[in-house]
Amino acid sequence: MLLKAIRFLRRPHLPRSLETRLQQVSPPLHRLLKYGTLDATSKKYWDAVWRDEGPSTWRTYPNLFEIINRAILPHSHVLDIGCGPGILLNRLRLDHSCKCIGLDLSSGAMGFLNQVGIPSVVAQLPDIPFQSASFGAQLR
Which of 84, 102, 112, 127 is the most exposed place for a label (fewest CB within 10 A)? Predict the structure, then answer.
């Protein structure tokens, strides 16, 4: 019994109905149980999110991505800061032949970018390893 409790605390599995209710009633407690941290801006949080959701995430923001897609010129050099698994970057690369680089604090998210051949950097603002004005478009 103790071993089950320890496993639950390390990686809790909540029934979907309970998880949904907990998310409504106490987002911080939900974050703590599901992702192991209260800090939604931490590397630990986002590594856990991308491990759970992967590139098939619900975080695709179709309206916003369409506006950005129309604004980017073909063959632009694009740096997406906080790109997650790179859904927008992959679209820009395919639609406009953009040269894309993703930057995120989650090494898990950068692994998904590498799988589709988009260069990536694990870093966090303000410490990014690029010169000013070295990209035609920077997305945040």
Answer: 127
Q: What's 122's domain CATH number?
A: 3.40.50.150
Average pLDDT of the segment spanning 72-85: 91
Q: What is the pTM of this model?
A: 0.73
48 is a domain residue: no
The SS3 assignment for 34 reads helix
pLDDT in tens, 43-68: 998 898 888 888 888 777 888 888 98
Neighbours of 134 (CB within 10 A): 10
Domain match, 125 and 68 both: yes
- Beginning with the edge strand found earlier in the chain, give each strand of the sheet holding 137-139 in spatial order: 120-122, 99-104, 77-81, 137-139
Q: Tell me the C-alpha distance between 46 and 109, whole Å.
A: 8
On whether residue 7 sits in a domain, the answer given is yes
